[in-house]
Amino acid sequence: MGKASLTISEVRDMMLAAADKIIESEPILTDADRALGDGDHGVGMERGMTAVKEALAGKDFPSAGKVFVAVGTAMMSSMGGASGAIFGTLFRSGGKAVGEGDAFTAKELAALLREGTDQVMARGGAKPGDKTMVDALVPAADKAAEVATLPLDEALAAVAEAAAAGRDASEGMIATMGRAKTLGENSLGKPDAGAVSVSIIVAAMRDYAAA
Amino acid sequence: MGKASLTISEVRDMMLAAADKIIESEPILTDADRALGDGDHGVGMERGMTAVKEALAGKDFPSAGKVFVAVGTAMMSSMGGASGAIFGTLFRSGGKAVGEGDAFTAKELAALLREGTDQVMARGGAKPGDKTMVDALVPAADKAAEVATLPLDEALAAVAEAAAAGRDASEGMIATMGRAKTLGENSLGKPDAGAVSVSIIVAAMRDYAAA
Amino acid sequence: MKKLINNPLKVADELVEGLVEAYNGECRHVGTRSIVKNDIPDGKVALLVGGGSGHEPIYHGLVGRNLADGAACGDIFAAPPPNIVFEATEAVNRGKGVLYLYGNYAGDVLNFDLGAELASDEDIEVRTILIWDDVCSAPPTEKKNRRGIAGLVPIVKIAGAASQSAASLDELEALAKKAVLQTRSVGVSMSPGSIPATGKPTFDIDEDKIGLGMGIHGEPGVGEIPMATADDLSVQMLDLIFADFEKDEEVAALAPGDEILLFVNSLGATTMMELLIALRKAKAVLVERGIRVHDVIVGPLVTCQEMAGISFSITRLDEELKKYWEMPCQSVCFSKMEGRYGG
Amino acid sequence: MKKLINNPLKVADELVEGLVEAYNGECRHVGTRSIVKNDIPDGKVALLVGGGSGHEPIYHGLVGRNLADGAACGDIFAAPPPNIVFEATEAVNRGKGVLYLYGNYAGDVLNFDLGAELASDEDIEVRTILIWDDVCSAPPTEKKNRRGIAGLVPIVKIAGAASQSAASLDELEALAKKAVLQTRSVGVSMSPGSIPATGKPTFDIDEDKIGLGMGIHGEPGVGEIPMATADDLSVQMLDLIFADFEKDEEVAALAPGDEILLFVNSLGATTMMELLIALRKAKAVLVERGIRVHDVIVGPLVTCQEMAGISFSITRLDEELKKYWEMPCQSVCFSKMEGRYGG
Ligand SMILES: Nc1ncnc2c1ncn2[C@@H]1O[C@H](COP(=O)(O)OP(=O)(O)O)[C@@H](O)[C@H]1O
Ligand SMILES: Nc1ncnc2c1ncn2[C@@H]1O[C@H](COP(=O)(O)OP(=O)(O)O)[C@@H](O)[C@H]1O
Ligand SMILES: [Mg+2]
Ligand SMILES: [Mg+2]
Ligand SMILES: [Mg+2]
Ligand SMILES: [Mg+2]
Fold it and tell me: Which ligand sits closest to the CA of D108?
């Protein structure tokens, strides 16, 4: 009963579901950023995803890629903070790489994550191991490349698992970027807030495709 | 074993004992003023009585009256606030009325309290019933006049009882002076902080004379 | 309450010493605990402020250029004793007399009056103008029972400017009296400050309540009301001020076209963010009523330690008050350039 | 935490609206959430500040006469998004380019850089000078990892004055760079602020501990130390600043005869009383070391809601920086007359 591929409006609905999931998770994200940052990540993501819902709900898009570009633009222009610029870059660059097709398959998923992740790293300068959302994105993008020929639902299941593993791995890292960097070794033992957000978004995409 | 009259240096020691008693009672006075005023009466009285101790300890005075004047001057110039001016007036004017004799008897006590109380009322404008220290002072002064021919220890026992009764009576009054006045009926049920101070001072004087 | 202090019983002395250092040569320490400007010209009518410490930056932070000439500083929440008032009086006097301008509290009146008696023994002429801007502390017919709260900032600013050129103590007294007469305030509090020497809160209030009309030590006003939004509360506060101008037979009601200063004050812990949110609504209400807001003051100037709460003060201006408002001034807490803040 | 707000998710928008009302005609609201002066002359090199809201009165309270021309305002504790930066940039630009002067935080750098890209699409020249005054956030060899904290106040003041007559963006950039290079700060915190939208404290700290070197959101610095007296802590904080000037190869050590500005800032709930007590000790230490305190700033200017804590900032002055410091300035939170505060 899973979906091997999504239509444009399904892509839109999938991202609306992801937006709801993030909004619901505000307290988790707040706590993660309180532990390691300035505590505003939950509220920022809620604000960004509220803007995403406004930008997507009831709208038609000419391509799957444009849905992601709209997600990125909404986040970038409403959130501010490090994560606004980073998530904005992720979805705007990634969305452009998805192209103008009207089907969203595992191949488009791989393009979205690869180009988005590369641009995030170029923009923000974070490398894997710096304890940022890059630590969830890179494994997710790598896994997506590996599973690019599977049906979308199966691919997303694997990618969500990789993102979650990346988030978990971030617990063992020492922050070197962003506000948490001055914590040094004290940042050990807690996951990065942005990595938590990435894993929630990908999990919500998986759940949509599985249904 | 009580004292029918005090020497000048005994008057000094009696007021040093009263000073210690007030300093010890700071928390009680603080709470009383917190309930009805701005909460600084305890600290103010502590400051005043610390100055009193500095002014009296180890000093010789030419008369009993001068001891009280010194108490008043120390309080007036160190405390500030309503009670600094009021207690300063009480002991400075009262002390002058005690005169230049070298014995302090119930007669001098009556003079101290009568003139001191009159000047307090003239200076501050408070009448009995306004829920100020005047409500402890007036009954104390009245009682002192009544018992002016008794031995000092007995007179002070009666005066201390009157002051305590005045303090208790202030619980049933509605404040119309000072910071508590805007409380209106809400000031009912709690004693006035200055009246508490008066009753503590007179009780300490009684205890000294009784020993 | 973790306070950054040394000896809890010495805070008033040490903060005044720090204040002198903040003035960095402009003012000096005088007597027991007063702060006085160094460059008061001969023949100037002097302006002296003062009151209890613990409300910083007032009262002593209002000494400065085109502001007060000196301040007599009491201990925490306690009026300065008469000798301190006298020491300050002597130091600011330049032969033309001294105007005392301070908030109407029993302790202050008693002690400043005693200080004035000491000054008169030295042939220094003193006049007193009491500030009683808190409309919630007594009806307009009983102004002598009203407290002085945040309204003292515009009043001292205006009187300080006027004192630079006042020909006589009479003239300065009349001007200060006019500024007082046209100034009204309402304060509210959400939570208490604490007494540095004891660490105890200055009053208690329920988590879901606001003290409407509370004084700057937590003295009660209109009563406790349920916690409200900034907009709601701003409307209620302004309504109280409007009603008071209306009821008071000594002044005209606030009418369309009237020009005012609006001062939005924090009592301590309330953030500038909150002040600005309240100001937004206050301005809208005033504009709707046709009142012309000539200028705005906003900030934590009249505080009670970390008390949470705000106050609104309104001073109605005429041409004379406006002229003195527009003069530049400078102190450690309140400065302005010539003209209005707003363009 | 009883906050005086309306909608917890709208606080940033409403406070900026309130700020525009506080400016009372001097500034206007631009685009999504920027504030811009109305009278920026043609041909002026523009100065833009900005950052997250919630730290009021900075950053947006530093727009004003002889100060910044505009501010791009983010949501609470969040850098402004690129579109807001761009809208502000466009509004302040007068053809001579725009200097961005803001605190060095990852989010701010990302968003201001994106904003600058949008501006460059419209042929507006932008330069960026980052403020990284917090010596406890990284060693002197890694200044690009340092946070910007309270030192931004003297830096923006000086750059704002210089921008009035700067012949080119190059000239203003060089001046701002010099002011940044000579400014160092250390902050400490006793207790957290709260996030208005959630009411949650921004960090946790034990009742008997102080965060030494903490940033203005509660970012860690040197570490937690036992609660100390104001005097002890003041000495420790100044020592850290002295040591940093000493270790930093880009600047000379602070030496006797050097002239400085001293800024004692409250992070929010810490009272002016406490600031003055700390200032008293700081001044004594500086005098003892032969440092000449040219002028002093004291007050709650760089805050994090009701966070308790203070910071010291020192800016070493040369003749040029002193000249710009002495110019008068005016904003809703920071004004001065010509010359020094202190006489
Ligand atoms: N340079 C960077 N590259 C990638 N992600 C980053 C970078 N800096 C910060 N982040 C991510 O942003 C998250 C914090 O976001 P948020 O709290 O919204 O912003 P801010 O740090 O401005 O308060 C971090 O948990 C981290 O995942
Ligand atoms: N006019 C007055 N006459 C007599 N006593 C007064 C008067 N005003 C105040 N008091 C006394 O002073 C006490 C308060 O003293 P204190 O707290 O030290 O001063 P303040 O009111 O200035 O804070 C009151 O409890 C009352 O007894
Ligand atoms: Mg954050
Ligand atoms: Mg009191
Ligand atoms: Mg008091
Ligand atoms: Mg942030």
Answer: 1
